[in-house]
Each structure stands twice: as C-alpha cells, then as structure tokens.
C-alpha cells in the first residue's frame, strides 16, 4: 500500500486552490485533501477539476448525522471518484455501516472503485483535558481512539484518522492492514497552531502511520513546493 503525503487544500475559493496547485510541475501527481471550507465554496466541480489534473482526492466532509441521511450523502460522494472520505466514528455502528453501504452503492452506480472510508476518532486538536471535560469521556485519549478504531473496523470502515501518537496502539488492536492516516503533522521547527497531538514526519513513520495529512506547514510556507518536498523526503527516508 502506498503511503501518501496528503496536502490539505484548506482554501476559501477554487481559484486559490488551483493557483496553489499550479506551483507544482504538471508531471507531479499529488494526493490532496478537499475539506469543508473548499467544498462548501466550490462544490463537486472543484473535485472534478482537481481529478482532471491527475491528482487523487481525499474528500474530507466528516459526516455525522442519522444513518439514513449519512447513507444518502455517502451515495453522492461515492459517485465522485474520490480515493478517501471521512465519517465521525462517534456516530456509532449503525451510522458507520450505513455510510459504507451508501459509498459502495454510489461508486457502483458509476462503475468506480469505492472510496476508502476513514472514521474520525478523536480530532488531533483534542487533548486529554478536553476529552474528559468537554466531551465527558473518562479515560485516556489513546483508549478512546483505540475504541473508535475497533468500532470502525467492526462497522466495515477501511481505516481511521488519528494522531500518529496512537497508531502503534491502533495497529496492535486491529491489525496493520487497517489504515491509520495521521494529521497533526509538524516538522520539528514548525508551529503547532491549534493542533494538540502532533508528531514529526519521521516519528509518524516510525510509529507506522499509513499516510500523513499536512496543511499549513505546506500551504502557508514561503516556498510550498520546497516545503512539500522536504516533508516527503523526510517521510520517505524514515519509511525505508
Ligand atoms: O480529518 C482530517 O483530515 C483531520 C482530522 C484531525 O483529527 N485533525 C486534522 O487536523 N484534520 C485535518 O487535517 C488538516 C490539518 O491541517 P494543518 O494543521 O494545517 O496541517 C486540516 O485540514 C484538518 O481539517
């Protein structure tokens, strides 16, 4: 399985996202994440425009609603030809299974492979105190994340989104074939911003992460292409 460095295209307009991508040589095929900000602004058209350039798309809309609504929405997402998409594990078993059904059905309608369904565990902006006080979940962040990984696997998801800090425990619990994609990635010198559970690309690779999601350290760098290449080089070297 390939281990991508996924660039989070957290931009407010399609134009800004495309100008950002124009900095890369046309032969460079990326995996990019379209999240709520860009999708709400630019819709399925931006997904298609980016796919038409040959990039793989991770459509990160973090669905969390009643099972019927999630199934119907996932059916639409399944038709878009994206490689990964997300749902909140906190929605529970029935909702997660409905998400998978919708995704598989939508992809089949277009004769496409189903996108990988990744369940959000605990956001990387959540720390121990927030878990125990805001969410009123007792115990450790790691225990909650591993629980959600087990729930996601039992509900037919393909993997989870988590901090690289929990990847070892997740793979020990559910096996190394279960995908663990990790945001909250910061090169050693970068600011953490609003992220609470961060790791460097090297540490994430050593922990067994199946792919990185990186936004601001690339999109807000003075030289975005160089920032991406430095992270890719560090990640690839540590994965060897
Ligand atoms: O689902 C995600 O991608 C996600 C989950 C999570 O727990 N933490 C997290 O940061 N993300 C996303 O990963 C990206 C991280 O961006 P940066 O903090 O700028 O690198 C953003 O697009 C977030 O929406």
From TrEMBL:
Catalytic residues in the record: 62 (proton donor)
GO molecular function, one term: orotidine-5'-phosphate decarboxylase activity
The protein's Enzyme Commission number: 4.1.1.23
HAMAP family linked to this entry: OMPdecase_type1_B
Functional summary from the UniProt entry: Catalyzes the decarboxylation of orotidine 5'-monophosphate (OMP) to uridine 5'-monophosphate (UMP).
Family to which the UniProt record says this protein belongs: Belongs to the OMP decarboxylase family. Type 1 subfamily.
UniProt-recorded name of the protein: Orotidine 5'-phosphate decarboxylase
Gene this protein is translated from: pyrF
């Amino acid at each position: 399985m390939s281990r991508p460095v996924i660039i989070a295209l957290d931009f407010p307009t399609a134009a800004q996202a495309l100008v950002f991508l124009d900095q890369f040589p046309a032969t460079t095929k990326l995996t990019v994440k379209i999240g709520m900000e860009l999708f709400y602004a630019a819709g399925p058209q931006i997904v298609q425009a980016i796919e038409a350039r040959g990039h793989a798309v991770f459509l990160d809309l973090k669905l969390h609603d009643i099972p019927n609504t999630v199934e119907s929405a996932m059916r639409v997402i399944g038709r878009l030809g994206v490689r990964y998409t997300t749902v909140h594990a906190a929605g529970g078993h029935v909702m997660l299974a409905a998400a998978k059904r919708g995704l598989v059905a939508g992809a089949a309608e277009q004769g496409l492979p189903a996108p990988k369904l990744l369940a959000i565990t605990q956001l990387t902006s959540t720390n121990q105190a927030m878990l125990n006080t805001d969410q009123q979940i007792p115990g450790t962040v790691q225990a909650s994340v591993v629980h959600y990984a087990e729930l996601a696997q039992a509900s037919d998801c393909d993997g989870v989104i988590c901090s690289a800090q929990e990847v070892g425990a997740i793979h020990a619990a559910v096996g190394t074939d279960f995908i663990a994609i990790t945001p909250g990635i910061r090169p050693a010198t970068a600011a953490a911003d609003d992220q609470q559970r961060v790791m460097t690309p090297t540490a994430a690779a050593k922990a067994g992460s199946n792919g990185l999601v990186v936004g601001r350290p690339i999109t807000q760098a003075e030289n975005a292409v160089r920032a991406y290449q430095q992270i890719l080089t560090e990640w690839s070297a540590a994965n060897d």
